[in-house]
């Protein structure tokens, strides 16, 4: 089965937009047992789109297309599909009725826009787009089956998941692969490589190392004659790797660190409050991404100014004067203060110099103190992070979340 | 000048890795006055790489290739280039001497690996890689000029910048293009299309519409006989579009909304405090991404619980009891409260139901109130957003930032 992914849009060939759609589709197709042979991107010119479509159709059994399905002048995919198939664009009455109903609820959209959105190449089947107005399409051209999806990533994903994945899964296939991401924090890539030196060769899966901004991910790919066989290989490998790396592994399921910490807090009914200076609200933002966190997350104080640290957290004015706002002492006072004010089980704090300015000889840009107050006392960590303002904020937030994770794990609460 | 970018690697066609190399090269080529016609990605199979190379060479004047230049078995680019050119791989003595010297300094690398890294297709010129062992290549095949670069992004960028960019810049070009992104919030794509119906055809630039999660971007591409001519067309078009869309345009330079608001606050010496419930710290996080914001950003209170709203912001217990925490009245009390407590020029607030649970008949998931308190009073906006928890948070935060932007603009402060 020869598969081509064709992504359409000037924003891709001009370098303005990363082609995340191609990566998403290739990954999903791999899970479903298909190997993508080639990915092609072209701009919004009808002649070029048509030429690439025709080349893909001649060469492939399955063609997945994204982009160019909207109602504006630069949306040429439907026309190109119709030309490649040698058919006309016709009104899909069911789609037209659906879109008219949907638009009737909101502010006025001109009838000709709705009509344009409701045309399909003759013989094509419209695929509902639950998140937007541009429907997907399925059409057979020559010996190839062509699926077209909108270019907005979440709409593309929604159409693929709702209307296309099951149809592809029902096609005959030879080999299934499954993948899984093990996420770590606190070890360098070289340390992980050394620790796993004897483990990786014995695993029946491919292992890739992906160093990130605040930790290293390990991507495992297992293949088998069916999905469960591939999944079993992955699970065995994940267990072995976790045994070697221990607490540095925060997820064997590719989860984000804040999701792991948020779920631990909720599951263990531990309440938390956060006092942030240099991280500027990032920790609160990440924790409140987790559904159901309101049971555990009591409040967050983004105490950027000294005044706010004193007023909101009860940090002593003299403490700031004697040690500076960026100090071990103030980090501890912030964590203890927010825990006490909010009346929570734990309190975490950050204070540091995110940059690009504000550094000095004894306190360079990137210096960060992270505090964790709990019923047994208060721990403070001092680190100097390299990187831009954004990177320092991110690394500091992740260090604080990791401190909370290790505390919650060790307590077994 | 027809240009193809060809990226090689199983990690791309399997969806493991985003193809950032293609985006980087396309963007750099656009700056240098070339329009990339197509981007093609294939895996590491020699037959497929050779076929795509031959198709690109037949079709293009300039071909940029990344990936597959290393010494391992899955690095097939040099062999494919040699086959496409009909020549043998030969040892490049200068490159060999250079790599031997370089490797002599570090840990042991086997001589045959160094030798493999030093071979090039006969007639090709090696391009030094300052950051790694795999050199780039330049070779003419048929009428096309082909440049090959390593696949590791920072090495690819280093080879392109050091050895290729200047050569391309010296080529005769017909047309220079420049691009620019106009960012809007508050209008749908269809509304923008309607408003610009008569403007777009009169512009001497290409206009692409890119709807995002909380606004629509317009990407303009202007072409001219040199860079300044292209830039002038862009500037003229941007002014015309801004005249039509008015306050909905928050940047004609592709900036993020929080950067625009942060810079306005700093430039006008306006101080701000933020009281967030449903956005959970996201507004504070975004504002504190802006360097220098500590002069304007006094504090943020993430008052997730009712208790926090009462304690930190002075919201009346009765107000919450009578109207609910998610209400116009509480949004106003939060904005006024944080402004007063922090003693800032403006205070903004959010309260809403981010979901996925917590909705009810009169107050559905996605209902959000956003408040803005200033010296002239307090404005509150009510909206119901569709989407996941993350999307509701993001849209609510952007609405609040936009409210602040419009206030700051109207004041002309």
Descriptive overview:
- 2 copies of one chain form a homodimer.
- Chain A is of the alpha/beta class.
- Chain A is 41% helix and 24% strand.
- In chain A, the strands form 4 sheets. The first copy, chain A, has a 6-stranded mixed β-sheet, sandwiched between helices. In chain A, strands 14-13-15-16-17 form a 5-stranded mixed β-sheet, sandwiched between helices. A 4-stranded antiparallel β-sheet of chain A has the order 10-11-9-12.
- Chain A is globular and about 80 Å long.
- In chain A, 53% of the residues are buried.
- Chains A and B meet through helix 1, helix 2, strand 2, helix 11 and strand 14 of A and helix 1, helix 2, strand 2, helix 8 and strand 10 of B.
Quaternary status of these chains? Answer: homodimer
- Please mark out the parts of chain A with pLDDT under 50 across 5 or more consecutive residues, or reply none: none
Quick one: biggest sheet of chain A? 6 strands, mixed
Order of neighbouring strands in the sheet with most strands of chain A: 2-1-3-8-7-6
Number of helices of chain A: 15
Straight-line N-to-C gap of chain A: 51 Å
Shape of chain A: globular
What percentage of the residues of chain A does DSSP assign to strands (E)? 15-25%
Question: Radius of gyration of chain A over alpha carbons?
Answer: 27 Å
Structural class by secondary-structure content of chain A: alpha/beta
Helix content of chain A: 40-55%
Number of strands of chain A: 17
**Hey, which two chains have the biggest interface?**
A-B, 85 and 86 residues
């Amino acid at each position: 089965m020869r598969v081509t992914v064709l992504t359409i849009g000037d924003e891709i060939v001009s370098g303005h937009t990363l082609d995340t759609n191609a990566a998403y589709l290739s990954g999903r197709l791999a899970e479903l047992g298909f190997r993508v042979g080639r990915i092609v991107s072209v701009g919004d010119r009808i002649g070029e789109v048509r030429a690439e479509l025709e080349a893909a159709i001649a060469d492939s059994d399955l063609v997945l297309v994204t982009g160019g399905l909207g109602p504006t002048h630069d949306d040429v995919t439907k026309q190109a599909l119709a030309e490649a198939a040698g058919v006309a664009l016709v009104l899909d009455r069911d789609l037209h009725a659906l879109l008219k109903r949907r638009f009737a609820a909101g502010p006025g959209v001109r009838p000709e826009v709705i009509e344009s959105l409701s045309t399909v190449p003759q013989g094509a089947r419209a695929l509902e787009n639950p998140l937007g107005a541009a429907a997907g399409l399925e059409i057979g051209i020559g010996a190839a089956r062509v699926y077209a999806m909108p270019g907005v990533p979440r709409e593309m994903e929604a159409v693929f998941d709702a209307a296309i994945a099951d149809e592809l899964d029902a096609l005959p296939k030879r080999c299934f692969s499954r993948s899984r991401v093990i996420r770590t924090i606190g070890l360098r890539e070289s340390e992980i490589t050394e620790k796993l030196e004897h483990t990786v060769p014995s695993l029946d899966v491919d292992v890739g190392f992906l160093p990130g901004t605040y930790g290293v991910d390990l991507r495992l790919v297992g293949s088998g004659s069916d999905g469960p066989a591939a999944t079993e290989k992955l699970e065995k490998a994940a267990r072995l790797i976790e045994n070697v790396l221990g607490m540095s592994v925060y997820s064997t399921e590719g989860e984000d660190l804040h999701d792991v910490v948020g779920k631990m807090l909720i599951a263990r009914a531990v309440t938390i409050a956060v006092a942030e200076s240099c991280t500027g609200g990032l920790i609160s933002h990440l924790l409140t991404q987790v559904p159901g966190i309101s049971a555990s997350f009591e409040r967050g104080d983004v105490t950027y100014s000294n005044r706010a640290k004193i007023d909101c957290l009860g940090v002593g004015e003299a403490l700031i004067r004697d040690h500076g706002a960026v100090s071990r002492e103030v980090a501890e006072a912030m964590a203890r203060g927010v825990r006490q004010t909010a009346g929570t089980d734990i309190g975490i704090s950050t204070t540091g110099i995110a940059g690009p300015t504000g550094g000095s000889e004894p306190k360079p840009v990137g210096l960060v103190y992270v505090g964790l107050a709990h019923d047994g006392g208060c721990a403070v960590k001092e680190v100097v992070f390299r990187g831009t303002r954004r990177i320092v904020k991110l690394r500091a937030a992740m260090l604080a979340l990791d401190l909370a994770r290790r505390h919650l794990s060790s307590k077994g609460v």
